[in-house]
Fold this protein.
Amino acid sequence: MLKTRTLATVLLGAGLAFTIVPVASAADANSLAEKCGECHGKDGNSSNPKVPNIAGYSTKYIEDALMDYKEGERPGLKFKKEDGTETDMVEIAKKLSEEDIKTIADYYSRQTFKSHAAEQETDPKLVARGEKLFKRKCKKCHTDFGTDPEDDAGILGGQWMEYLRHQFEMFASGEREMPKKMKKKFRKLKKEDYEAIIHALGSK
Ligand code: HEC
Ligand code: HEC
């Protein structure tokens, strides 16, 4: 530190101080992932059913989701961390620069999504009904039970059911906006259809 300051003084004298003036540098992927990893897992596969996996999502989806949170267009669930402090995605995203968002989206898009199918119980009857509904109403935009990141629509198959349930509730109440064409299909679902589709997705 002392050395730097001495150098700065010398350079300042020479009118060259600008060469070492520190610019607010964007956080690197690793230090960002340390923070996100407290909840999402450092590899983007979360061990808490309230927290979605984000590994393998498209960069576009992650960037859009973080911008939606940052701009207050999507509510985030209040979540208690292990140290007892509470926060949510809106608070977290507000602290990220656009540069940080690009960096972390790129990082998580290159991780591998691990399905939670083996860790959560699904009812085979609901799964069968949900699969039919999903194929009829959702698969146009959510390919292969929503496991193709290139849809830019998240990853649904193998996701935590508790997370999905919360999103279904927010879509139904209007707290979370959905694309117009999805709304048309979603509106026609009955309450018991939600659970069937959630079981189908949770089993993938
Ligand atoms: C304190 C825990 C916590 C931390 C830390 C955290 N998240 Fe989240 N994140 C959540 C929860 C909980 C949700 C789901 C919110 C809901 O259900 O409304 C979520 C949702 C998301 C989503 C939306 C996923 C989807 O499928 O739509 C993205 C993207 C995301 N987080 C990225 C990040 C990134 C990037 C970081 C680090 C900069 C981060 N999160 C840090 C808890 C956290
Ligand atoms: C016209 C295309 C389209 C149709 C049809 C569609 N979706 Fe979507 N869906 C999207 C897009 C795009 C997103 C991501 C954009 C966003 O979050 O606003 C999305 C997001 C979602 C999410 C949130 C993902 C996450 O990680 O949080 C869920 C859950 C979902 N859709 C379920 C469904 C279900 C169930 C159906 C059928 C009833 C359906 N969608 C039909 C385009 C569609």
Observations:
- The radius of gyration is 21 Å.
- Confidence is low (pLDDT under 50) at residues 6-11.
- Residues 28 and 103 are 7 Å apart (CA to CA).
